[in-house]
Amino acid sequence: MATPDSPQNTLSRFRVDGRVALITGAGRGIGLAIGQALAEAGAKVALQDIDRDVAREQADQLKQAGHDVIALGGDATRLADADEWIAETSKSLGPVDILINNASIQSSRNLEEWSNEQVEEILRANIVSPWRLSQLVVPHMREQHWGRILNVGSIQGIRGYLGMGPYSASKAAIHNLTNSFARALGKDGITVNCIAPGYYNTWRNRDHFEKHHKNDKRVEFLPLKRVGEPEDCAGAALLLCSDAGGYITGAVLHVDGGMHIAG
After folding, report:
1. How far is CA 117 from CA 65, 112, 123, 124, in A?
2. Beta bridge partners of 23
3. Rounded CA separation 162/61 (Å)
4. What average pLDDT does the structure give for the chain?
5. Strands, sheet with 147-152, edge to edge from the N-terminal-most edge strand
6. Tally of CB atoms within 10 A around 31
7. Which of 26, 51, 68, 104 has the most CB atoms at less than 10 Å from its CB?
8. pLDDT tens for residues 109-130?
9. Of 140, 148, 217, 233, which Cα lies nearest the Cα of 182?
10. Pair 83, 129: CB distance under 8 Å
């Protein structure tokens, strides 16, 4: 039977007070929206971006609002940088309790135009870096029997897109990696999940939207009839990173306006 305190108790499970969160690719777009949500829910947050000045600008704004936030630079294609992110976050904020693997490289070319180096760069950023970061945070999470790893996949992990084979393959791999890690780490109190965005109005897609949005038929076949905004991922991420989502692991949550069920 519900009590007057039930709603408050439920909402409190979405709080992540005192938890330390590292979000890669968080200077803009979906990563930033997730970082802002976690900070507002009480987490101490490290925002990483390849452009450290962009991350620092966003971190400064969150600090002015009273949140405990740092900015990190570095490149997701360099595995040594992953070690530095963990070390710097741990030194400034404490050991990482919540890891958001969001940084990725997205590129489009004709099949025969891809070089081995270009494919390898995408795989390093989109798969190997999340793998390495996960390895680095697990010992602390295991010790405290609590941890959250959230990977950011894509609708392209389900549907391959023309010209984007390496990116699509990497996102299919991150979906599968989520399942594998969830199986391995559940006994240690660590959940591993994935959110899969679809057609989003982010800085990376801005040029496309400005040129084609009014005539873009992809919007029409979406059940919700609109493109996603970065903030649309924030609530899903907060659920999966808090105690409210503590019984969810190995899930790939489609935050795509129904794109994965559209014809």
Report:
1. 42, 13, 10, 10
2. 47, 100
3. 39
4. 91
5. 69-72, 44-48, 20-23, 98-101, 147-152, 190-197, 252-255
6. 28
7. 26
8. 788 888 899 999 999 999 999 9
9. 148
10. no
User: CB-side exposure of 262: number of CA atoms within 13 Å?
Assistant: 18
Q: Which residue matches tokens 């907060």?
A: 238
The CA-based dihedral angle spanning residues 35, 37, 43, 48, taken in that order and rounded to the nearest 10 degrees: 0
Amino acid code (one letter) for 83 = D
* 140 vs 133: CA distance, rounded Å: 12
CB 25 within 8 A of CB 48: yes
pLDDT of amino acid 109: 79
Q: Is 177:131 a contact under the CB 8 Å cutoff?
A: yes
Give the residue numbers annotated as catalytic, written as ranges: 167
Handedness of CA 106, 109, 110, 113 (dihedral sign): negative
Do the beta carbons of residue 112 and residue 99 sit within 8 Å? no
Name the helix (H) or strand (E) containing 31. helix 29-40
User: Amino acid identity, residue 32?
Assistant: L
